[in-house]
């Protein structure tokens, strides 16, 4: 069951310009959390009304052994800027674990994980879990430049088939990470998280190759509990219109890849 | 536990305490079961319900603003029939009173909703008159006394359930609307709904919300809401449920002192999902510390 609680920050560091890794002490949440789920958080324990709303951030890693949660985020605006000023020993206000997690289909063996930009962050835990389940894993990571390939060193230590793509050519292929899809064979299942255009391209490729998968979506959130209907995304259903709005915070953020409608 | 009497009687609608949750911010109640002892809430105003299911607006549906937020959800809801069949039976396992917030685009919509809900076992209806009247070019029902009264009269004819009419703040004189709905037979008035607002993304040079405009809520609107409660409390005799930016017990007490008999918590639930229980406890503390025996005693005390 999700809970709201005020927790201690164990550490926070800038892992590359504008990108932070925060470690939070929260054994009860760590014990329950699943890969792909997220926290809805606020930077201070006292009630402060500006900025008002919580911010959703995915788990990067769930360290059950030490009872710690690791998140990785990029500074975008006021909320994440404030988050980045917190230090070890400061308090943070959490709701979580929220949403649905990734699931691993047992019968499949050959998996692909495609992450782009900040979308790389929620995938590390998934990849580690795939390896624990004895699966073959190909990982494609894309970003503007090498330093933004989050967790790159950790991925390099894992027993996965890793390929990178950067727009400036500073690591791996120069260009879109989705350009790397063409060379892949024997993939049975795909996971993706990142910019919508990237996920839409992965979806197209998966459909052409009749591969099922899961995508992690982002929408602006109010409540995080399923009450306010701010966070909806378009999901295919068998109704007249062929789709309906579903809540990213409770029905998602993980959805079946082929059911998501990426607009534009 | 103190001996303070927290019960409130809203013209026959009995609540265990003055703390309710505002429509559209608390789902159907169950969404908050992991954070709140739902049995301790006075009432839950459920999401705006319409005759037919509604998909709602495109996203983005919300935008954060200084100490507040804009929303343009577009009344996404499963429709009244689905509510009656699938949701109401679930909410009945809790002690809170279920109040259904009804929305329509014609007077007939409201009347039909009232007749469908009449014997369903809900505690009351809250009439959301901030909706556009399609027969009047989309002008909101709540902006003209006669149009607002017309909705209340039509609903009154269909049901004996306690009627709460929820006022829009987007009017020149809120007391005129309040008097009109009182004359039309409302039992209670709730106020305020959101203030119409807008936010523009200066990088994209376009409105942030897909719907362009949206309703402003949260701490930013509290002074406006307190003022309106204070004015309406003096203009009508029916009890009031005050809301608009209530984030803590002090805010809630402010509304009671301004003349609200009960209060409703909206946006603050998003910020702190446990806030309703903290506010309930805080109101009780305030009463004890100041030597009162009941909530009733402080209602309207600031009216001078
Ligand atoms: C389920 C989920 C998981 C996420 N996981 C991560 C993560 O692991 N790491 C990471 O860096 N970011 C993640 N994000 C995005 C992150 O929530 C936003 O970057 C953050 O809210 C921006 O806040 P801000 O105040 O800095 O930006 P501002 O632009 O000032 O924020 C204004 C408002 O818009 C909302 N907002 C802005 N961008 C986004 C966005 N992309 N998604 C949702 N809401 C947004 C904010 O929450 C706030 O309400 C995730 C989003 C979701 C929905
Ligand atoms: C996301 C959201 C959805 C809302 N939906 C409704 C609704 O369906 N019907 C209604 O009468 N009011 C609706 N409201 C208005 C609230 O019930 C309340 O009147 C308003 O937000 C002011 O209170 P607050 O500042 O405490 O949120 C909504 C408000 C928000 C923030
Ligand atoms: S954030 Fe409120 S329903 Fe998802």
From TrEMBL, chain A:
PROSITE patterns: FAD_FR. Transmembrane segments: none annotated. Pfam families: DHODB_Fe-S_bind (PF10418), NAD_binding_1 (PF00175). [2Fe-2S] cluster binds at residues 223, 228, 231, 249. InterPro entries: Cyt_c3_hydrogenase_gsu, Dihydroorotate_DH_ele_sf, Dihydroorotate_DH_Fe-S-bd, Dihydroorotate_DHASE_ETsu, FAD-bd_FR_type, FNR_nucleotide-bd, OxRdtase_FAD/NAD-bd, PyrK_electron_transfer. GO terms for biological process: 'de novo' UMP biosynthetic process. This is Dihydroorotate dehydrogenase B (NAD(+)), electron transfer subunit. It comes from Halanaerobacter jeridensis. The gene is pyrK.
TrEMBL record, chain B:
The active site is at residue 131. Substrate binds at residues 47, 71-75, 128, 193-194. InterPro entries: Aldolase_TIM, DHO_dehydrogenase, DHOD_1B, Dihydroorotate_DH_1, Dihydroorotate_DH_1_2, Dihydroorotate_DH_cat, Dihydroorotate_DH_CS, Dihydroorotate_DH_I. GO terms for molecular function: dihydroorotate dehydrogenase (NAD+) activity. It is an enzyme of class 1 (oxidoreductase). It catalyses: (S)-dihydroorotate + NAD(+) = orotate + NADH + H(+); (S)-dihydroorotate + A = orotate + AH2. The keyword Cell cycle does not apply. It holds the Pfam family DHO_dh. The keyword Cytoplasm applies. Its EC number is 1.3.-.-. One of its GO terms (cellular component) is cytoplasm. Belongs to the dihydroorotate dehydrogenase family. Type 1 subfamily. NCBIfam families: PRK07259.1, pyrD_sub1_fam. Catalyzes the conversion of dihydroorotate to orotate with NAD(+) as electron acceptor. This is Dihydroorotate dehydrogenase. It comes from Halanaerobacter jeridensis. The gene is pyrD.
